[in-house]
Design a protein that fits this description.
The protein is mainly α and 212 residues long. 72% of the residues lie in helices and 5% in strands.
């Protein structure tokens, strides 16, 4: 089991990779990270091992860990996988989601509104974090451990922040409007509508990346 310190370091580094703050091929050196995060090298080593297992970094002998670089084809294919998995999760969630989870999704959608026009790294990173949490809650509401595990693996591609940055405020506003459609479908309990809304949302993001 991961230590509390190791878990915090892992989540911090994972968030930086998925947001794009730590880009492809970035070197992750134990000593430098330990000094930056104010911890010993042990939790850093533990976090890097878990990131390696998650497919986010790879180890280079005598050099340390480096962030994995994904090809364009791999990235685009991942969106198809996500559309299938998260679409199914949303369909199941429509009949299983709790009022508390509906409230959380509503709060997240509203929290995204002020940062839709952000053009700074901090704002875009926050938008990426809120977006990821929205999707995590929907998948969790499916009550399917298998879907949660598979989706966690499929969403490891560090893309969303860069997608938000490249495509601008209009794309972000459209994306959040789609979040509202997904929420309405979940509130209605319509399993087919929820599944289609989520699939369409993710495939729209894929099309934005493909057109770049």
């Amino acid at each position: 089991m991961a230590s509390t310190g190791g878990e915090t370091v892992y989540l911090t580094l994972r968030g930086r990779i998925l947001s794009g703050e730590l880009g492809a091929n970035a070197m992750l050196r134990e000593q430098a990270l330990a000094e930056e995060l104010g911890v010993s090298r042990t939790p850093i080593r533990e976090a890097l091992r878990r990131l390696d297992e998650a497919g986010l970094v790879t180890f280079i002998p005598n050099r340390g860990a480096t962030v994995v670089a994904w090809t364009r084809e791999q990235v685009l294919e991942t969106y198809f996988v996500r559309a299938g998995l998260e679409g199914r999760a949303a369909g199941l969630a429509a009949s299983r989601i709790t009022p508390e989870e509906i409230d959380l999704l509503t709060v997240l959608i509203e929290a995204m509104e002020p940062v839709l026009t952000a053009d700074d790294d901090a704002g875009l990173a926050e938008l990426g974090r809120l977006n990821a949490e929205f999707h995590r809650i929907v998948v969790s509401a499916s009550r399917s451990p298998q879907l949660m595990t598979l989706t966690s693996s499929a969403t490891r591609v560090p893309l969303m922040a860069s997608t938000f940055r490249r495509n601008g405020a209009q794309y972000r506003a459209r994306s959040n409007h789609q979040h509202r459609d997904i929420l309405t479908a979940l509130q209605s309990g319509d399993t087919i509508w929820a599944e289609v809304a989520m699939r369409s949302h993710i495939l729209a993001a894929r099309n934005a990346v493909a057109a770049d």
